[in-house]
Amino acid sequence: MSQFMNEIQSVTDLTTKAAVIEGIIAILLSFVLSLVITYLYRKTHKNGRYSQSFVHTIIIMSVVVAVIMIVIGNNIAVAFGLVGAFSIIRFRSAMSDPKDIAFIFFGMAAGIACGLGFYLLAVMFTIILSILIYILYLLDYGGLKSTYKSLRITIPENMHYENVFDEIFEKYLDYYQLKQVETTNLGTMYQLNYLIAKKEGIPDKELIDAIRAKNANLKVSIGMVN
């Protein structure tokens, strides 16, 4: 009887050791894959500075999801318990870029695959999707041919601004629209605010120099549209 119990204990120990090893592999692999995902995110991010905390969040969530999937296994009761526990969590942070949400799901999917033991699938999924995302980034798929910008022109008070710059705009721009007119410098000048899209290959300096020749060399600025 004691020999039988010792054999059962030995099998249990081996099972526990195997589960621990699988868990460590899943955690480390999900961490490595999330590093690949976040590197891709940093490489393809276009909206100026990105948030370091968001990059860390993707890594942490990938590892946490992997551990959750290990804990759940085939236990439905545990799964429902975790759903109830996590249902009290509320995320209040608004995403500035819809693509950020996709990268969160990307990291979570890699973590789920690692947690369920599909290591090869997790690696293949991460590599293939990363390549596809990078190809979309290189091709600028879905991007606009012309980037809309804001143009601000300061003119003297005695200048009639209606259609005064139309000749220049027709030469350098694909699109322009006067959005706002306001007084500045204690009412001695006007500021015209336009929404514009330059023709391909036209540098900002060339457009600004042409306008300065018309507005008595007063202030002209070009900026990005929010």
UniProtKB/TrEMBL annotation:
The keyword Transmembrane applies. The keyword NADP does not apply. This is DUF4956 domain-containing protein. It comes from the Bacteria. The chain crosses the membrane at residues 20-41, 53-72, 101-121, 127-144. It holds the Pfam family DUF4956. Keywords: Membrane, Transmembrane, Transmembrane helix.
